Amino acid sequence: MSPRRQPIDFQLIAATALASARHLLADWVPGGEWSGDEYKPRNPTRDDKHPGSFVINAKTGKWIDNATGDAGGDLVSLYAYVHFIDQVEAAKIVADLVGVHLSKGERKPEPGVVNNPPPQVSDHRKSPWVPIMPAPDDAPVPPVAHFTRGKPDVVYTYYQDCADERVNGYVYRFTTSDGGKETLPVCFCRNRDDGKQEWRWIGFPEPRPLYPVQAFYPDDDTPILLVEGEKCADAAIRYLSLEFDVVTWPGGTKAVRKVDWSPLVGRKIYAWADCDAQRRKLTKEEREAGVDPNSVPLLPESDQPGMRAMREIHKILLELNPDVYFQFVDIPKPGDKPGGWDIADAITEGMDAEALVKFIKNVRKAPSKIKERGTVNRNDGGLLLNKDYKIVPCLANIYDILRSDKRWNGVLAFNEFAYTINKLKAPPFDHGAVGEWEANDDVQASMWLTREYGFAPTPAQVGEAVEALARAHGFHPVRNYLKSLKWDGVQRGDYWISDFIGAPRSPYVMRVSRWFLMGMVARVMEPGVKFDCCLVLEGTQGRRKSAMLRVLAGEWFGDTDLDLNNKDSMGSIRGKWLYEFAELDSIARAEATRQKSFLSRQIDEYRPPYGRRDIRSPRQLVFGGSTNVNWGWNKDETGGRRFWPIECAYDIDCDGLAAVRDQLFAEAYELYKQGKRFWPTSEEQKRIFDPEQLKRHQSDSYVELLAGFVKQQVSDFRMIDAVDFMKIDAARLTRDIQTRVGKSLIILGCKRIEKRSNLIRFWYQPPGTPGGTGDRDGQIEGDSDGISF
Q1: CA nearest to 81, candidates 57, 54, 60
Q2: Closest by alpha carbon to 693, among 770, 764, 749, 628?
Q3: Element (DSSP H or E) covering residue 268
Q4: pLDDT tens, 310-327?
Q5: How many CA atoms lie within 13 A of 97 on its CB side?
Q6: What residues contact 23, with CB distance under 8 A and at least 6 apart?
Q7: In this structure, what is the dihedral angle of CA atoms 365, 368, 369, 371, given to the nearest 10 degrees?
Q8: End-to-end CA distance of the chain, in Å?
Q9: Which CATH topology does 482-694 take?
Q10: What are the Cα distances from residue 784, in Å, to 96, 505, 654, 668?
Q11: Rg of the chain over all Cα atoms, to the nearest angstrom
């Protein structure tokens, strides 16, 4: 066991870093501007367009982002902030960079290698980088070295599947200065904020893949040898490829619940755990008395990390298949071998293939489990019993029974889209039926357990156990739908609005056609991703506008009344992929303001039915709207950027849309996987979208009065010039009139600017002049057939 670690001297590290502050800052956050001791770079943790808000004092180390309120008191906290890691790991890295040796008991860095684990995303700030699996064929080569750890000893490749050579990612193995090992995963990622793609030092998304993929050829009955770590897997493959398919997982012993173990279902498995030799931790009294850590007893084998991980994997596989064939290799007892002894060490000691096979097949008896009915002694891995050998009505026993009783196999699952517990098969109690799990099911399951197992849990206990078991078997119906589609290669995504709604092909209509479908896909693949645009269908009654939205979303369509003032009513949109706001023209101005705020949210907070606490639910849906008028329904003076209006001049061909719906989403999903953009640039918004959105703005007579005046302007002008044109007497120039004039000028494309050197502070730039908002006639470059996205 390693010696007790001493506290890290954060103050010493931070103080030492100040001596090299300017050099460190140029490396951590390059491209900033200096003003005395203050350094002003762009904040790399957000979409920071201009330097100025993010300020770092090189003399004191204090820093603050005035735009977000994020702040810290030294350069260690700054490093943790910009690299998304915790303070302890940041201190270790900064100490290495500035030459501070850590206290006795801490790892001491060597040049070019930093022994910190992969950066972990903090609870309050999520990394914008999303892994793409598999990496696209045109992805650049992965990094040859880590920016602080240097070149790896070996790189392990995680392929997509055994049928091709596409790569999910890599795991790099480094040797640390104390002789230990560090492994870091590398994935090809897309930035959800700006669409940039590159290799990043980031972990595989959950559920994580197994290694190597070659072990999972279809219809293969070769037994599996399960080992810890890629090094052991590669060593075993060299000697045992004819006898076993060797498998391991990424992330170590604490990550087994983050892995996809389903490929092992139906296979015979031999588990070789590392022979660990960790000791019991010292108590506070023992530490104060100076007891030698190496003098305390070894932990029992069941509590050693390697065996504990293998037992947990066994439990997971029992959940997937109660009849799993899982054997534990009879490894040496803790202390009989050096700590961490594994199959690679056995090979180094001289075991050949024959000896290894004999060793592996010398297995122990697997822990007992519940069969069809009944109990077993807890020492054999069964249920908790009281002194009278009766089943204790506790949560653990309820969970174990529901997990292991064959009659409940495949019944419970958690719908990650609707946040509901689902019965995929009828439960074994009377009148059990497929569908959403309800409160009455808690009661029925409680009575069933009493009849079948002779103990009486409460319905509340049953409900908690059911939820825990269901969450271990999550599914997402919309993601499953999208992943099941195969695109035929015919491009329809740019033209479906024109083909089935009848809108003329134009740069605007083609972009809305493609991007709205891609936005729907992105919202379910990346819950909470920024996409607050609402497709608005305009046309007289009977055009089948709502029917078209229903066809697009299928069973995941919603249009019930939604109370925007009541957060608990947000539960109405759970399980919906597209939600319709009907009759937008009838919404009052105050309600329209609330609607605008509602559309902008990326996370909904509410208490679900029967829930005991509020939940934060990242949005997985998009919005559509309908109106019976083609003008004047948009009450947003700024033009309504969120609304993408489409005029429905003819009856919508819903049957034709339904016939190609799957292919439309197959194409959109393919474009999403390629990292294509699904939002307008500022230039596209200004030149293509603004004109369409402003046409729908609720008109003001001042706009009509000022339109001719604005068109005549060739240089900056004052508000009083516009007021004189309207022949409004100065005595009648109230604050309300000034506000109406100013909003009208903005709607007409003018830009309000500030001239501090003039007596009159605020001026207006007409459209079509340098700094204005667009050309005068609103002409759009490009034609309907040659749009570059």
Answers
A1: 54
A2: 749
A3: strand 268-271
A4: 999 999 998 888 888 999
A5: 26
A6: none
A7: 100
A8: 59
A9: Rossmann fold (3.40.50)
A10: 58, 6, 24, 20
A11: 32
CATH T-level fold of 213-364: Dna Topoisomerase Vi A Subunit; Chain: A, domain 2 (3.40.1360)
Angle among Cα 394, 400, 402 to the nearest 5 degrees reads 105
Q: How far is 90 from 506, CA to CA, in rounded Å?
A: 52
State both tokens at 311: 């037992």
Selected from 3.30.70.940, 3.40.50.720, 3.90.580.10, 3.40.50.2300, the CATH number assigned to the domain covering 10-106 reads 3.90.580.10
Distances in whole angstroms, Cα of residue 90 to Cα of each of 45, 85, 93, 327, 649: 16, 7, 5, 42, 61
Domain boundary assignment for the chain: 10-106, 131-200, 213-364, 378-475, 482-694, 701-765
**323 backbone dihedrals φ, ψ, rounded to 5°:** -100, 20
Length of the chain: 789
Nearest to 751 by CA among 695, 696, 690, 698: 690
Tell me, letter by letter, the H, E, C secondary structure of 422-437. Answer: EECCCCCCCCCCCEEC
Q: Vertex 588, ends 587 and 591: CA angle to 5°?
A: 85
**30 — pLDDT class (breaks 50, 70, 90):** confident
The secondary structure of 157-197 as a DSSP string is EEES-TTS--EEEEEEEEE-TTS-EEEEEEEEEEETTT--E
3-state secondary structure of 745: helix
Q: What angle do CA 525, 529, 532 make, to 5 degrees?
A: 120
The tens digit of pLDDT for each residue in 93-143 reads: 888 777 777 654 343 433 333 333 333 433 334 678 899 999 998 999 999
